[in-house]
What does this fold into?
Amino acid sequence: MIMTLLSALIPILFIIAIGFVARKKKYVNGSAGENISAIVLKYTLPALLFYTFATTPIRAIWNGDFVFAMLFATLVSYGITFFYTLKVQKSMGDAGIAALAVGWPNTVFLGLPLLILLFGTPAILPIALGGIIILLTIFPLTLICLEKGSKGEGNALIKAGLHKNPILLASLVGIMCAALNIHVPEVILNSAKLLDMPTATIALFATGIAIADNPIVITWHIVVNMLLKNIFQPILGILCVYIFHMHGFWAGMLILSLACPSANMAVMLSLKYRTYEQEAVSTIIFSTICFIGTIMIFYPITLHI
It folds into this structure.
């Protein structure tokens, strides 16, 4: 088990380290992190989501109990973090980023290889379903917080952020193609697949740059974020398993998905909006480092559900 976790974790930390060294050695300039984040948010991640949703039948990934359980656990952890951070930081943008860091588990870049090793290729389906839930709930909520927190931007940018966001648009188009059984031309799918290939790599590289520009700090706020993400959220998952009478594969996937560390998207948005950068980086790094302990605690529980 430990070697399985390390085999998934070490490559991720290695790519982050490359980005860190590249910035410290000045191979990339100070704006590189923001520019790379823009590439992820506007091009590669939308392509990845469109391809995944458009090529996955809706019936194959739908599980009502999993949907409501994931929705409950995500919104509760997001809400608690948001209001706690808003009280401490006094900033809608900071609160939105902190809540996203806690609410969005890194099931794609870190959880996917590990969960496939544990559950096989069927693990892709609940991961995709969980991604849809997050993209349609806490992600747009975070965009609203960030746009509203931008000085002098007004409601026009809030509307623009929601209606013109490539991630949301690509996800909705992909879902629509799958739901209506629309045949997407092979050339479009191949183009999207080719474009989405570097998503994980450049997102992790940008995180390394962000660490170099924003040294990791340990504060009570960061510790609270980490505890909410690594301990509280998977406990919510266990609670949901009993509330919704889940068992077997879907119950295990719910708990271990929520046990995954904070997703890189919080850093991507913090770089784009230039807010909560140091805290977002610190939360994600400490959450990822502590992930081995988290999974060692919660994986044995899933074997008895």
User: Anything to note?
Assistant: The chain has a mean pLDDT of 84. The chain has one domain: 2-302. The two ends are 19 Å apart (CA to CA). Residues 64-89 form the longest helix (26 residues).
